[in-house]
Write a structure and sequence with these properties.
The chain has helices at 45-48, 73-86, 99-110, 130-143, 146-156, 159-164, 166-177, 181-193, 220-229, 245-248, 250-261, 266-269, 310-323, 325-334, 340-354, 362-376, 382-391, 396-410, 412-429; strands at residues 2-5, 17-20, 27-31, 53-57, 92-97, 115-121, 207-212, 233-238, 291-293. The chain is α/β, with parallel strands linked by helices. Strand 7 (207-212), helix 9 (220-229) and strand 8 form a beta-alpha-beta unit. The chain starts with a strand and ends in a 5-residue tail after the last helix. The model is unreliable at 6-10 and 264-307 (pLDDT under 50).
Length: 434
């Protein structure tokens, strides 16, 4: 009934996976959340695999899978498709939690002919802010995954569940601890760049948007944004659940997935057929009755700036990735008719041309920038460039080496002041935020 494959180290295009269920049944893919393994779906697999061939996969560097970081959500989706292609799976249903949901949405947008129906669990068209995820990457690069592991239960579960289920809490912590840090950081970067708000109307498959009523990570507000933007979407709000609703309320989530993928929409049944009808009376679903509702339509914000050329757009993208949304938003908000042209020049020239060149990687450019700022005496801008250096992959130890180098060539007083500024920034940026 089930098989497990640990993908060869020689094949970088495929994922570690597991099948459960009849070999001749239609395929239903279950995608995991960041920091979890395919075991987060253990409570759903027995029931779902009675009707479908359930395919679960591990993210790279999770659950013992080969540690091959992915550059983006689309990169991860492409690896999933390559795995399914190698198995001869062409069309499938897809349910994914959080990052796994982002993969499903990306597939529905870029490969709509492959996805028969979609369930987005604890998901969002944009996960928080890019700054939040990049700061999480800085924390992991500096301190490892232990701070993230310790705080995972409070993000994933309601307080009552965490107190009543210490074994599950420890299981969750261990999943994070055993994740490859480099892969975790790469997925933080992928989620920082993920934003499909402008494309929601192009998701053309029947979609269930499922969210825990007490989810503080990607909660009901984000779920309603998905429902408002996706033409054929319904919202299911699960009481007594936080972010990992499939773990915390397994019965309710299983029933919702069964109802969704077994014929709630006629055009789904051709590829994901309904379970065979029972000969006797049909028992009603589930002791936990989820609340379902259709969210009112919402006006989605414009994502792209109008009237700008590619150099400006490329520069703004790099500027935000390096300096962070908060700094760039503040700079552009403070601009006026007198300074608009200067902001435009900075974005096009500094970020769209120089920082975008292939000749040096961003880590090296950050080293050069730190030295130049200290040498020129412009210490008022050093804090933001230290933050940028951390975002670009420099560790605090490497930043220290750059500052020591400036002490030799720029003088002890300049380097001393730089150390004071950098120490404060590093302490702030490498401390996990609640």
């Amino acid at each position: 009934m089930w098989e497990r494959e640990r993908v060869s180290e020689k094949n970088a295009d495929t994922l570690q996976y597991r099948f459960d269920g009849p070999e001749d049944a239609p395929v239903l893919v279950l995608g995991p959340s960041l920091g979890t393994t395919w075991h987060m779906w253990d409570r759903q697999a027995p029931e779902l695999s009675q009707h479908w061939r359930v395919f679960r996969y591990d993210l790279p560097g999770h659950g013992g899978a080969p540690a091959r970081p992915a550059a983006s959500v689309s990169d991860l989706a492409d690896r999933l498709l390559a795995t399914l292609d190698s198995l001869g799976v062409q069309r499938f249903g897809y349910a994914g939690c959080s990052l796994g949901g982002a993969v499903g949405a990306d597939l529905a947008l870029r490969h709509p002919n492959r996805v028969a129906a979609l369930a987005l669990v604890a998901s969002s068209p944009r996960f928080g802010t890019a700054d939040e995820f990049r700061q999480r990457g800085v924390v992991v690069r500096t301190n490892g995954l232990e701070p993230i592991a310790r705080t995972a239960p409070e993000r994933w579960f309601t307080p009552g569940f965490a107190a009543a289920q210490p074994a599950i809490v420890e299981w969750a912590v261990q999943m994070v601890r055993t994740t490859d840090p480099g892969c975790y950081i790469s997925f933080c970067e992928a989620l920082a760049a993920f934003d499909i708000r402008a494309g929601l109307s192009r998701i053309g498959v029947p979609t269930l948007v499922l969210v825990g009523a007490e989810d503080k990570v990607t909660g009901p507000a984000e779920a309603r944004t998905l429902v408002a933007g996706i033409p054929d979407a319904r919202l299911a709000l699960v009481p007594g659940a936080s972010h990992l609703a499939p773990v915390e309320q397994p019965g309710a989530v299983t029933d919702l997935l069964l109802m969704h993928f077994s014929g709630a929409w006629q055009d789904t049944s051709a590829s994901i057929p309904a379970p065979a009808a029972a000969t006797g009376p049909v028992a009603p679903f589930a002791p936990v009755v989820p609340v379902a509702e259709i969210a009112p339509a919402a006006v989605l914000p414009e994502i792209a700036s109008a009237g700008r050329d590619d150099r400006y757009a490329d520069g703004m993208k790099v500027r935000r990735e390096v300096l962070g949304d908060a700094h760039v938003d503040a700079a552009t908000a403070a601009s006026d008719d007198f300074t608009d042209d200067f902001q435009d020049l900075v974005t096009r020239y500094a970020w769209g041309e120089v920082w975008s060149r292939d000749g040096l990687d961003r880590r090296t450019r950050s080293c050069v920038t730190l030295g130049a700022v200290i040498a020129s005496g412009h210490l008022e801008s050093l804090a933001r460039h230290v933050r940028a250096a951390l975002r670009n992959g420099l560790t605090p130890a490497e930043i220290k080496e750059v500052l020591l180098q400036t002490a030799v060539y720029c003088g002890i007083p300049a380097a001393g002041a730089a150390f004071d500024i950098a120490r404060s920034v590093i302490q702030e940026e490498t401390t996990p935020r609640p």
